[in-house]
């Protein structure tokens, strides 16, 4: 006998997949019904030759809605994102198919009950086929989610308003009074919903970046095409106007489907960019033409003929330079200064020329690269291979990282690591070429930064070795020579007490005095080598004792010490000396009532801060005064940094030190 044991949770996971499959099959069925109804209606109207009738004027647009929206809904529902948007597209498509079928039935059936039923359906079903484009689509595009919880009421108002509008349209021929009341209520709900939909699109635009901005760009371009075609309808004869509007309407679900599923969305950037540039150029030329036409026609003899020639000539002269400038501006909007490498290099050179600290060059390079090219992130590493060390980063890397080496005199001195713009699959060839030029130009400066970094590391290593040797010498002197001298002094003093001869006693007294002086000198030497409290009490208790010693009845000094691990001798000494100097300055010069010493350590860094509530530093501080230079030097010689912030509400001295020896 054999048995099969199901894995825990396998049935629970299979049920949602089966449910999703059933739902998708239902969606496919509805889309097929919509397509069949649309195509059947078009075929029926064609068969009876009813396209010339007035009721068939809008049939191409309804048919385009029925087919394109239904097809786009399946594309969206087949993916993993934007399911609500997919169902909304399907509803619009089914409504368009219903409008097509209703109109075709009314045209084909003639004066009969079937024709009346078709007219009834066509009278109200246009509402779910059109109004959601103005309300729900802007609210849910592109991911099927509302911009925030507060927008839920807008969606509810839109659905209720559409229901009232459809009901009023269906009842208008049978009960005009209630129908008008429903229309009024629908207007009260739908007009604010349309405004809120536009506001939602604006909110998404301001919040979006990268891929989200591209998704919005696609729909905005298609919406602009549809608006332009709608504005041109009075000038277009039938069926040209109906066909152009059908094509423009069909572009809307296509754009939504592409944007939501992100299918080749990145390759549309160039199309969108050129479309915006072309539309801007056309708008500018139309404005120039009309302005010159009316002005010249009114001022010069010859009337419209001279005006038309003058305006056309001006537009011809402006066509190329204006097109170049507009395309360049749009390209900069999408890609930053990619087309102008000199501008990127100039931004870096300005920082160097204006006296930027050499240590700030990596941060400046990352900033200029990200800001100028709109890239996702940038990081600059010094060295090559396993020895490479990242010294500056900007942005959060998302997607593949492209590394571009920096070479100086044949050696790789560093690397620039970048990620593409958010939403792009990778770094483009033009971006890579520009960044290669940037790397070649800044490589000598990066080599200098690398040399400075190596010198700083060597300096920190020397300081660490010096402090470790001082700690060893102090221990040896204190525990060895100091203890021996103290023992000899005790023996000499004992011999002095036992000596009966005054001369011998005098010599022993002199010897004991000399030994006492030698012990005092030795104690002073050991104190200079390293603060005794660090070895006698430990780093944390030594800092707390330091705070207690400088505290007075007028000034309260507190200490908060939180360490993760033991510290190298150099770091302990630097932190202790900086804390002692900063506390002394606060107590003597700040006029504060409370001073707080905070020391926080992690595995990599140690933060030492002294904060007081005094009057702050004077506007002009004499060089070398208050020990500021010595504190900064102690921090920098072990690879740290010192920051001083002063104002009317007090002064903050903060040292950021490495918590490990280099």
TrEMBL record:
UniProt catalytic activity: ATP + protein L-histidine = ADP + protein N-phospho-L-histidine
EC number: 2.7.13.3
GO cellular component, one term: membrane
Single GO MF descriptor: phosphorelay sensor kinase activity
Keyword annotations of the record: ATP-binding, Kinase, Membrane, Nucleotide-binding, Phosphoprotein, Transferase, Transmembrane, Transmembrane helix, Two-component regulatory system
Sequence intervals crossing the membrane: 21-51, 63-80, 87-111, 123-141, 153-172, 184-204, 216-236, 242-260, 272-300, 306-324
Protein name: histidine kinase
Organism the protein comes from: Nocardioides gansuensis
């Amino acid at each position: 006998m054999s048995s099969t044991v199901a894995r825990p949770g396998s049935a629970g996971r299979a049920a949602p997949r089966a449910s999703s499959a059933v739902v998708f099959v239902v969606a496919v069925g509805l889309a097929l019904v919509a397509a069949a109804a649309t195509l059947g209606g078009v075929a029926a109207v064609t068969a009876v030759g009813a396209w010339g009738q007035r009721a068939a004027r809008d049939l191409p647009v309804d048919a385009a809605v029925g087919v394109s929206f239904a097809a786009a809904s399946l594309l969206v529902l087949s993916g993993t994102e934007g399911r609500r948007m997919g169902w909304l597209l399907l509803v619009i498509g089914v409504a368009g198919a219903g409008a097509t079928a209703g109109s075709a039935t009314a045209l084909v059936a003639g004066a009969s009950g079937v024709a009346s039923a078709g007219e009834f359906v066509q009278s109200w079903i246009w509402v779910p086929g059109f109004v959601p484009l103005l309300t729900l689509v802007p609210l849910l595009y592109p991911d099927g989610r509302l911009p925030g919880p507060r927008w839920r009421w807008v969606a509810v108002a839109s659905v209720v308003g559409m229901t009232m509008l459809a009901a009023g349209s269906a009842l208008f021929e049978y009960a005009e009074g209630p129908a008008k009341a429903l229309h009024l209520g629908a207007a009260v709900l739908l007009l604010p919903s349309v405004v809120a939909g536009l506001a939602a699109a604006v909110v998404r635009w301001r919040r979006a970046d990268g891929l989200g901005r591209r998704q919005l760009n696609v729909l905005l371009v298609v919406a602009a095409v549809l608006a332009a075609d709608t504005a041109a309808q009075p000038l277009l004869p039938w069926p040209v106007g109906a066909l152009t509007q059908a094509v423009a309407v069909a572009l809307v679900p296509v754009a939504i489907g592409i944007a939501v599923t992100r299918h080749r969305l990145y390759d549309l950037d160039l199309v969108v960019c050129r479309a915006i540039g072309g539309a801007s150029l056309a708008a500018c030329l139309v404005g120039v033409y009309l302005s010159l036409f009316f002005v010249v026609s009114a001022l010069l003899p010859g009337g419209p003929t001279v005006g038309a020639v003058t305006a056309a000539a001006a537009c011809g002269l402006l066509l190329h330079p204006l097109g170049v400038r507009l395309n360049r501006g749009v390209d900069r909007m999408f890609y930053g200064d990619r087309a102008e490498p000199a501008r990127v290099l100039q931004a870096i050179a300005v920082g160097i020329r204006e006296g930027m600290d050499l240590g700030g060059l990596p941060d400046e390079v990352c900033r200029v690269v990200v800001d100028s090219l709109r890239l996702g992130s940038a990081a600059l590493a010094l060295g090559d291979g396993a020895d490479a060390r990242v010294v500056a980063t900007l942005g959060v890397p998302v997607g593949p990282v492209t590394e571009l080496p920096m070479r100086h005199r044949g050696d790789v001195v560093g690397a620039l690591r970048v990620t593409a713009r958010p939403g792009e699959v990778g770094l483009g060839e033009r971006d890579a070429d520009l960044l290669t030029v940037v790397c070649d130009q800044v490589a000598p400066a990066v080599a200098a930064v690398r040399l400075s970094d190596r010198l700083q590391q060597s300096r920190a290593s020397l300081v660490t070795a010096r402090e470790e040797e001082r700690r060893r010498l102090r221990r040896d002197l204190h525990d060895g020579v100091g203890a021996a001298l103290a023992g000899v002094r005790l023996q000499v003093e004992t011999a002095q007490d036992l000596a009966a001869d005054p001369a011998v006693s005098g010599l022993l007294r002199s010897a004991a005095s000399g030994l006492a002086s030698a012990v005092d000198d030795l104690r002073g030497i050991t104190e200079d080598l390293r603060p005794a409290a660090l070895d006698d009490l430990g780093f944390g208790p030594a800092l707390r004792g330091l705070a207690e010693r400088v505290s007075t009845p007028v000034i309260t000094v507190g200490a908060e010490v939180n360490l993760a691990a033991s510290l190298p001798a150099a770091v302990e000494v630097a932190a202790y000396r900086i804390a002692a100097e900063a506390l002394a300055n606060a107590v003597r010069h700040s006029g504060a009532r409370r001073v707080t010493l905070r020391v926080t350590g992690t595995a990599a860094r140690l933060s030492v801060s002294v904060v007081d509530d005094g009057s702050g530093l004077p506007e002009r501080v004499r060089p070398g005064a208050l020990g500021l230079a010595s504190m900064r030097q102690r921090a920098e010689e072990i690879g740290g940094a010192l920051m001083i912030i002063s104002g009317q509400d007090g002064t903050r001295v903060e040292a950021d030190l490495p918590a490990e020896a280099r």
